[in-house]
Amino acid sequence: MKRYGLIGLMLLVILATPAMAQTLNKGPIGNSSLGITSAKLSDTNYTYGSNVELTVTWSYYKAEDYGSRYIAIIDWSTYTTKVKPYTGDAFVANASDPSNYKWLISLPEDAGSQTYSINTAEKNMFPSYYVVVIFNTTGAYDDRLVFIVEPVAGKPYVSITTDRMTAALGDRVELKYKMTASENYYVGVLVTGWEGKVYFQNCSVGTWTLYPWMAPMANFDEDRCVAICMAAGKTKSECENGLKFFPLTSAYGFKNTTEGYIVFKIAAGKDPYNLFTGSDPTRAEATAVVILAKPTLSSISIPSKHVNGTDLTITGVTNVAETNSKYDVGEQNMVYLNITDLNDNLKCGRTFMGIIGKDKTFSIKIDNFGAQPPCVLETGYYKANFTLVTDTGLTDEEVTVFELVNGMVKIMPDKTTVVRGDKVKFTIITNLKVNNPVYFTIEDQRIIGGTGSATETLRVDATGKAYKEITVSQTAPLTEYRFRAVIAGDVSDTITISVVKQTIDLNADKTTVARGGEIRFTGTTTADEVYVFASEPGVFKDVTEVPSDTTFAPTNAMKKFLPDTNDRLDFKLEVLTTADAGTYYLYFYAPANTSMIDRASDPQKMFAIVVTDPRITKVEIPSVIPYQGKVEVTITADPGKRENARLTWVLEGSNIKARPTDFGRGDIYYSLDSNNEVKFYLDLKDYRSGSRVIDPGLYVFTVKLYLDSEEVDKVQKLVEISAVSLDVTIEPSVIVIGDQIKVTVQSNREGVAGYDHIFVTMVGANYKAVQRVTLDSTGKGSVTFETLGIADGTYKIYVRDTMNTSTADYPELYVAEELYDLDPADATARVARAHDDILVIRTIQILKEKPTPTPTTPPPTTPPVTTPAVTPTTPPPTTPPVTTPPPTTTPAPGPIPGFEAIFAIAGLVAIAYLLRRRQ
Hints:
With 919 residues, the protein is mainly beta. The protein contains eight helices and 62 strands. The strands form 15 sheets. Strands 10, 11, 12, 13, 14, 15, 16, 17 and 18 form a nine-stranded mixed β-sheet that branches.
C-alpha cells in the first residue's frame, strides 16, 4: 500500500466528496473499441510543478467509420459535473471544450506509440484529482486512469486569477483565489498599484478595506470567505458582491487620469506580520495583474448625410461592461447623445440614451428624425455629442458632424425602348428608410391595355429601393409613355418609355445553295414568333407560298421559328432535292400580334436564294508539280445533300491514266467533310504501276462529283510535272582553314516542307564527309562543313537529289557516301535507281591562310594618239539560241477543247526534256 505524507492525507480529506468514488489508477489499460493497445501513467501521485508522464500505444483506427480519437486530462470535479453526465455529441463537445480540459491531443489514424510529458504548473493543474479521458467523435470513451496532484511539501498552495487582463475604469473585476495546505496558515488577499492605495479583503465584513484581515486556516478560497462573511451577519449575495469583485470606481480613488495596472495578490504563511513581505520561509504567494483602461467610445457609425424625416440609427463600440451586468458597478454604464448646431446650441428637447450590450456595443434610434418632436430641424449641418459614463468622473466624449438633407427619388427602368409584349422593370431609388411610401403613376395606361392614368403606392425596402414591373400590351399604340414617382415633400422624378415596332435582324450563311442543301439563318428578334414564306411552293421544305392578303391569321401549316430567352434566332431551311434551279425569294415576318400578321406594318426581312444543281465549286492544285514531288490538293463542292455525294479524280497524260487507287488509296472515291471539302496529298512517288514513274510533262487533272451513282459535275485542270532543278551556292568565296563552309541548295520543290533526300558530299585528299539537306516550304535548305584540322588543297562538293528512288541494295545514303560521283547518265546508274538523280558538282580551294592583296600601280598617262579614219565593217548577224518557252496553263472548269492537241504538245515537251538531260 502506498504511504501518503501528512500533506497528501490533508489534501485527500479536503478534496474528498461523495462523488469521488473513483479509485486512483495509473494503468496500464487497453480498449479495443477505441484501438488503444496500452495507456499508462508514470504514477498516481504528483507534486504541483512536476511532470505527468502518459505513455500511449495505439493501433490503426479507421476514422471514416469510427471517428477521430482524442485524449484529454480533466479535473475530476469538472469531469463529473460538466462532461460525464452527457452522451454522444454533447459528451464530445464538453470534453473538447478548452474551458473544461487542462490538456488535449488527437491520435492519428495510423498505428503508433508516444510518451507525453505534461507539466502540472504550465497547464494550471492545481492540487486536485484528475482523470485521463480517451474518447472518439462518436461519444465512446474510457476514463479509468485517475491521478492526484498534491501541494508542494512545507508550503501552502495559493492561486489567484481574474476574469480579464484589461478592465475599464468604472467597472469591476471578478476574482478567483484559493489556498490549500496540510496545516493552518495565515492567509490574506490585497490589491494595490494606483495612487498609493492598498486594499485588503476583509472576509468578516464582506468588503475591501484599508486594513488587513487574516486568520489561520488550512484552506481558503472565495467560498470560505463568503461563509465567514455570512457568519458575520451578511447575506450570501452581499458577501459575494463584496468579496469576489473589486470595483474600479471613484469611491476607491480611481480617476479618469488613472493609468497603468493594478496587482491582485494572495499570500499565506506562518508569520502574520510578514505575510506580504517575503521574509517568512513558509510563505507562498500568487499574483494577477489587470491593466486599467480609460472608458472609451470608438467606431461610432452615423451617416454623414441623413434624410430629413427618416429614422436615425446610430451605433458604436465601447470598452466598458454591459449595462446592469454583474460587472457594471457605481453609476449605470450608459451612452448619452445631445444634438446641437455648429455653435453648440442644443437643438433637440431631450437627451437620448444608449444601453451597452453584451458585446460592448450600443445603439440609439430616433424615429422620423428632423420631422417630429423632440427634433424638428431644418436641413443643414449638426453635431452629435456623445458622452460615455461608467461612474462619477469616469467618462469619455466624442463629437461627430453630419448633414441633414432632403429626400431623393430616381426612376431607373431596365429599358427605355420596348416592343409590344415586352416586360419593363422599374427600380425606384430613394434615400428613404424602409417601408416609406413611394407614389408611382402610369400617366397613360394604354401601354398596359387600360385607359386613363393610375397611381400605386409602393414601399421601399431596407436599401431604400422600390420595384414595379409592367407588361406592354399587344395593342399598345406606338408612342411615348410617361411614368412618375413621388415621395413626401413633393420630391419627384419622371421617365419616358417608347413603344416601337418589333425588330428582326437576320443573316444567311449563304445565298446560293444546291438542291438538297441547307441554309443556316442566325440573328435576333424582339418578336415571340418569326414566320417564313417563299415566293413559290415546293422549293423549301415545309415553307408555304406567301399569302396575297395584306393581313392574315397564322395557321399550323405556316413555318415559324421561336427565339431563345436572349432573343436569338438560329435555324436552318432545307432546299428540296426536287426543286428546279433558279432564283427564289424568302420572306420573314416578326408580327407584333401573334394572332395576326400584318405585311404592311410588321417588321420583315427578305432574301434572294439562288438554287443550283450540285456542283464542284473549286479545285486547288499547283499548276507545276516537281518530278516525284508531293503537293496538297483541295476540292470544294456544293453537293446539296452531302451524305449522298462522292468525289473522284484522274491524272492523265504521257500514256498514263492514274486514279486514287494507283497511289495506294484503297477506295477510288472520297467523302466530303463538314465544310464540303476534300483535302489530300498527291505524292508522285506513291504511283504504283510496275516500275513506271510519272515523267515530266503536261497532264490533265480531272475531278468528278457523283450523287449516289450519277455523275453531276466535272472540272479539269492542266498541270505540268517539271524536272527538278538545283541551284547550289557555296560560301565564303575564299575559304581558309578554320572557316565554316556553308552549302545552300535552292530547288523548285516549293509548297511542302521536310523533303530530305538531297545529300552533299565533300571529297578531298584523305577526306570525305556527307551531310543531308532538309528543305523548307520554299524549297531551300543548307548544310555546313567545318575545315578546322583538314589539309589545304582542292576539294569537290557533290550535291545529289536521289528523288527518293533508291533500292534495298543501294540505299540513298550508300550512294551518297560510296557512289557520290556516279553520273545519272551512266548505264550502271539504273541498277542503283540513280538514273533519275540530279547531280551538281562544284570545285573549291581551301587555303592555309588568307592571301594578301597585291597593290596595283596606276598605268602612266599616255597622250592621245590620232588615228586615221577607218571604214566600219558590219559584223555578221548573230542568231540567238532557240529557247522553248514553258507551257502556259490556264485552269478552266469543264471539259478542255482540243484534247488531242494537248497530248501532242505534252509529247513534244517530254522529248525536249529528255534531249536537254542528254546534253
